[in-house]
């Protein structure tokens, strides 16, 4: 089958031919129909720290949606032709696209505990976005952020994840504020339910934000969130634009701020996002490419040329 390989930091993704995987007991074989392209796919090319969780050569692509084409046994509960998506964290502790084969291949084997059915009316590209952008956003805002209805929530970055996180916060009953440097997408932030949109989160320091979720993580944004959040506020760090940040511990201590790092979310987080997508309450901006355009898509993401979530359709 055709696949993209990652062989090491600072090495380009390469197109290869590899053997088609075979599902074992408790597994299914999925023909990939859509696979997301994420900022972390940019990160693995640039930062050696990613190698700690990767088995090389790796087939990246942790946002997977497709159709079941084979089952490992008769007890999977799935049949050929079922449309499914995959929880990227992996019940077995092996993340898809990192320590096991991901969606940047024509076929991928998944454990049935990691699989969710795609609801009627949800496209493959939306389902692929739900598995990471949706899961991570829900996990950050609701699960790690412990959002309560009526709270004031700040969202840093209105990109592929932030747009979904802001919308989830609004749908869960929060008063939403967005910090986004690109003024061209401010209208989209307001359309998602934002009360106010600014360039820098510190402009919202007088709002009394209960929770700030940093979907950017570009070095200074974490410090800005700690400065802007209200007394006994919570800051959830999701963005990994840079893997280091310098923070001012004075407001962290004096305001009794809780700073939490979080990756991903639960399988239930994906299920909840899929329900919102099926109802039409969440319709994130998605740009599409094809299998051959994956490497160029990563470059475009790196250059900041993508609005929303970038998904490759096969």
UniProtKB/TrEMBL annotation:
Superkingdom classification of source: Bacteria
SUPFAM superfamilies reported in the protein's UniProt record: GroES-like, NAD(P)-binding Rossmann-fold domains
UniProt KW Zinc keyword: yes
Cross-referenced Pfam families: ADH_N, ADH_zinc_N
Keyword Oxidoreductase: yes
Residues of the Enoyl reductase (ER) domain: 8-312
Needed cofactors: Zn(2+)
Keywords from the named record: Metal-binding, Oxidoreductase, Zinc
PANTHER family named in the record: L-THREONINE 3-DEHYDROGENASE (PTHR43401:SF2)
Protein name listed in UniProt: Alcohol dehydrogenase
């Amino acid at each position: 089958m055709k696949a993209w390989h990652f062989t090491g930091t600072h090495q380009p993704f390469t197109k290869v031919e590899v053997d088609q995987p075979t599902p074992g007991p408790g597994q299914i074989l999925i023909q990939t129909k859509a696979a997301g392209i994420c900022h972390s796919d940019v990160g693995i090319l640039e930062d050696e720290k990613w190698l700690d969780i990767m088995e090389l050569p790796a087939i990246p692509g942790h946002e997977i949606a497709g159709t079941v084409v084979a089952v490992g046994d008769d007890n999977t509960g799935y049949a050929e032709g079922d449309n499914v998506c995959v929880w990227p964290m992996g019940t077995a502790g092996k993340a898809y696209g990192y320590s096991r084969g991901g969606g940047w291949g024509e076929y991928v084997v998944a454990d049935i505990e990691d699989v969710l059915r795609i609801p009627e009316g949800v496209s493959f590209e939306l389902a692929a976005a739900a598995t990471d952008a949706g899961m991570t956003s829900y996990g950050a805002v609701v699960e790690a952020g412990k959002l309560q209805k009526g709270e004031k929530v700040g969202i840093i970055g209105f990109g592929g994840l932030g747009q979904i996180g802001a919308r989830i916060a609004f749908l869960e009953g929060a008063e939403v504020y967005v910090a986004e440097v690109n003024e061209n997408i401010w209208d989209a932030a307001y359309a998602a339910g934002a009360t106010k949109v600014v360039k820098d989160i510190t402009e919202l320091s007088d709002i009394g934000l209960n929770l700030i979720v940093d979907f950017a993580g570009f070095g200074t944004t974490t410090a800005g969130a700690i400065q802007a959040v209200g007394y006994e506020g919570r800051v959830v760090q999701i963005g990994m634009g840079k893997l280091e940040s310098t923070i001012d511990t004075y407001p962290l201590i004096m305001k009794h701020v809780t700073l939490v790092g979080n990756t991903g979310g639960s399988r239930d987080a994906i299920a909840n996002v899929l329900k919102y997508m099926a109802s039409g309450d969440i319709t994130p901006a998605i740009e599409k490419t094809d299998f051959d355009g994956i490497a160029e898509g990563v470059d475009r993401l790196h250059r900041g040329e993508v609005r929303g979530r970038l998904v490759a359709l096969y």
